[in-house]
Write a structure and sequence with these properties.
Number of helices: 9
Distance between the termini: 24 Å
Strand content: 5-15%
Oligomer: single chain
CATH architecture of the largest domain: Alpha-Beta Complex
Helix content: 40-55%
CATH class of the largest domain: Alpha Beta
Order of helices and strands: EHEHEHEHEHEHEHHH
Length: about 325
């Protein structure tokens, strides 16, 4: 299997037939073996029935996964990726706002040597206040924090080489951070403008509340990328800063006691200095404990601390 389309679905019964009508002619022009994996994320309408009907008509290309309840878009994407067998994986939404006609363009860019090609909804057809503006701000913040500069992290339409998706699991709203995780293992990333259409049926599933979740997940992503393998750098660095702050206060109190005869023990700065010193020491201890946990994690699961792009004149151990 050359190509797998992964399509999360939630209450899109009217859009599914339109999407399939758009996908099939495009797949014929690509001239590759392909499959489309629809993941029904606990839809409350007739989306599953519509999918089942179409899957029975086209057993060669259509696959359906149905969740017992709504687990969220990230879980749906993760399930689709786990069950996809294609060498290349393309993600797109089922709401017909992504244009399947852009898929050949993404694949052509992928063939230029990239591991991931991300869509950019340059002319977005969404509400400017509740969708577009928060997205622009979030994209700028994510790019600044992670160092992976993309205009549109929220665009589901992306093409991946399978190996670019190996080595990490998706939780929360983490699907939008796939380019960041892929970049951390050395993936080459490109971004292309894609078409974006207004909704014909149904309504958007997300609003401003999703921005808060994305920001919280960004903290997790930054920690995993920068400190997951060396947590002592974060906890130890913070601890040293507290200890330095406490020491500086003690020096100030000592100088003030010598030259101004001001009592040390009666000053609230003394209590603050002691508190900073204790917090710093505890933070360093937490860093050491985290280091032990990381080493136990890697060694117990035999998880490597590196990723290999290719090997020449070598074979995997055990082959």
């Amino acid at each position: 299997m050359k190509l797998s389309l992964v399509i999360p679905v939630y209450n899109e019964q009217d859009n599914i037939p339109l999407l399939l009508d758009a996908i099939k002619p495009i797949m014929k022009t690509i001239n590759q073996s392909w499959e489309a994996i629809f993941v029904d994320d606990g839809s409350r309408d007739n989306s599953l029935s519509v999918l089942r009907e179409h899957a029975e008509r086209d057993r060669k290309h259509l696959r359906v996964i149905s969740f017992r309840r709504n687990f969220g878009q990230t879980a749906a994407i993760a399930a689709g990726i786990d069950h996809a067998i294609g060498e290349t994986i393309v993600l797109l939404d089922a709401d017909m706002q992504n244009d399947p006609a852009d898929i050949p363009m993404l694949l052509a860019k992928l063939d230029e040597g990239y591991d991931l090609v991300s869509g950019w909804r340059k002319e977005r057809k969404d509400n400017a206040i509740t969708r577009t503006l928060p997205s622009v701000l979030a994209n700028g913040l994510i790019s600044w924090v992670t160092g992976v500069h993309l205009h549109d992290y929220g665009c589901t339409l992306k093409a991946y080489r399978r190996e670019a998706l190996a080595g990490f699991r998706l939780y929360g709203e983490m699907h939008r951070f796939i380019p960041v995780f892929a970049h951390s293992v050395g993936a080459k990333i490109a971004e292309l403008p894609v078409h974006h259409h207004p909704r014909k049926f149904g309504k958007a599933k997300y609003g401003l509340e999703r921005t808060v979740k994305v920001l919280l997940d960004l903290f997790t992503v930054k920690f995993l990328l920068s400190y997951a393998n060396k947590p002592i750098y974060l906890f130890g660095g913070t601890g040293m800063a507290f200890i330095f702050g406490g020491g500086a206060l003690m020096v100030y109190l000592f100088i003030r006691r010598i030259f101004d005869s001001v009592a040390v023990l009666g000053s609230p700065l003394f209590q603050l200095a002691i508190m900073f010193s204790i917090m710093g020491f505890q933070s360093i201890l937490m860093g050491l404990i985290a280091e032990l946990l990381v080493r136990t994690y890697h060694e117990s699961q035999r998880k490597p601390t590196y990723t290999i792009r290719t090997m020449i004149n070598l074979e995997k151990i055990g082959d």
